[in-house]
Amino acid sequence: LNLAMNRRQFAVENGNGDPILQESWRRTWWQIYLVDADFAAIKRASTFPTMNVEVTTELPCEETEYASGAIPCPKTLDDFNSREFAPDNHVYSSFAYLIGAIHGISSAISRVLTGSSYSSSPGVLEAVDTMIDGWMLMVPESKANIFSKSGEIDEHMFHAYMAIHAATVGLHRPFSELLSDPLESISSCAAAPSWPLKSSPGFENVHTARCLLSIEAQVRLLALPAQPFSHTPFTVCMLTTGTISLLSACKFLLQDQKLAVARDQVRMSIGCLKSFAGVWPLAGKSHREVQTIAREMLGLQCQAGSNVRLAEESPADNDGQLRSDPVIGSQDSLTDRVLPYPSLDTLQTYWDLSDLQTDISAWFTTY
To answer: Which of 243, 212, 231, 196 lies closest to 334 in space, CA to CA?
Structure first.
């Protein structure tokens, strides 16, 4: 902020007349903004330093355009926030849609709350739901399916969808039938249990449905064939939020076949957290926390001799020696461990992401 990177002039004045360098400066600012916002979400803060400043820095272009050096005339955040009125149906970059999602959620919460931390309330729900519904309705078809026929994942849209669904679960769960367990307070990602909160009569099912739909969407996203290091590290807390809520559904709500499916989804989610721990050591802490919460909520006994470590420590090998930096030199080994999957021509059938933008026709309610 002291450098005024939030101002359009910064990229121009420090870009040496090079469009690629100017684009790099714009991307730097917006990446700082996203990291700031994601950390605020983990801390349950309704505001963060880069939020309450005027931003005139223009939005990033597509990754392919940046890589090729063919930088188009950049659009502004004001342009993006008024895209529903544009006559040309302009398709923004995936980076821009991610920025729009995070900025929209943060702005909606800050407009309703005045304190330094946020909690679920009818006012917050209405503001955030309206923003999310509008964002999803305005996502063009070319961006809605994040998994291409060539087998590539649009990581910016992946991040956007994961964040939106994590926010939906976090805000709606206190009003839903997904009750909390006191042990959830050990999680370094999820909010401390403080529910159930009072909802309008008859609308508990609506809140529960929104939670379950968003959890299902997260599971579909994590089922895509990708290496853990390709996703943002903030995926860990987004996934943890959904997984703990899914555990609640297993304990308090689901039965028979639906319960069996949910248990499989829990297994996959915990497996994802375990794979993330091989890249980001702090993910190992979340993995152990979720395991402990799961054993409690599902009534499972710890295996004899198991040692649940909740202290924040670096993962160690069986010989007790610390592992080498998992980010350096680990990607090849992770690639070697990937399970084979069907040909790319059939993946679109197995991972149908067309309903990531869940049916919102039933969501327009009064809380």
So the answer is: 231
What is the enclosing helix (H) or strand (E) of 125?
helix 122-137
Q: Give the count of beta carbons closer than 10 Å to the beta carbon of residue 307.
A: 6
Cα distance between residue 292 and residue 270, in whole Å: 11
Question: Which candidate, 113, 139, 115, places its Cα nearest to that of 126?
Answer: 113
CB-based contact 237:254 (threshold 8 Å): no
Question: What 3-state DSSP class applies to 365?
Answer: coil
Could you identify the residue written with the tokens 């976090």? 170
Does the reported pTM lie above 0.90?
no
Euclidean distance between CA atoms 308 and 291, whole angstroms: 8
Is the bond preceding 326 in cis, omega lying within 30 degrees of 0?
A: no
Q: Give the whole-angstrom CA distance, residue 361 versus residue 349.
A: 25
Radius of gyration of the chain (CA): 21
pLDDT at residue 121 in the model: 67
CB atoms within 10 A of CB 49: 11
DSSP string of 27-67, one letter each residue: HHHHHHHHHHHHHHHHTTBS--TTTSS---PPPP--HHHHH
Alpha carbon distance 99, 82 (integer Å):
14
∠ CA 38-43-47, rounded to 5°:
70
Query: Is 357:309 a contact under the CB 8 Å cutoff?
Result: no
Q: What is the pLDDT of residues 222-267, one digit of tens each?
A: 988 877 678 999 999 999 999 999 999 999 999 999 999 999 999 9
Q: Which DSSP state fits 130?
A: H
